[in-house]
């Protein structure tokens, strides 16, 4: 009984608006994967180039750096808004299903936009149609 009480003392209990209650363990012993003097990674190429131009990269060259998280990437195809959209679609931690749903959604948007594009007769109307589905989601078109 005393052990259970200690666990609940370490928990912070948040009551949600629904009937459910969740218990989140907080770190109290000060231990972490990386020591506090490790800096966070700078994974975006634009930020890295700015740091090189300003000379700040030279200062940080010999400071230990944490490994980037699995969603932090410098890929040209990476879009944080698409990641947010996938996270909104995700249920029960099934990110693969959510990602395939998002890809199908983008495909349907692309087909719809192409159909509108091919129905237009003049170039002025065609130039107004956005064919990139990721941009149409970000602009809300």
From TrEMBL:
Which segments constitute the Small ribosomal subunit protein uS7 domain?
71-111
Q: Does the keyword Nucleus apply?
A: no
Per the record, the similarity remark reads: Belongs to the universal ribosomal protein uS7 family.
Please give the name of this protein. Small ribosomal subunit protein uS7 domain-containing protein
- Organism classification: Eukaryota, Metazoa, Ecdysozoa, Arthropoda, Hexapoda
- Which keywords appear in this protein's UniProt record, sorted alphabetically? Ribonucleoprotein, Ribosomal protein
Q: Which domain of life is it from?
A: Eukaryota
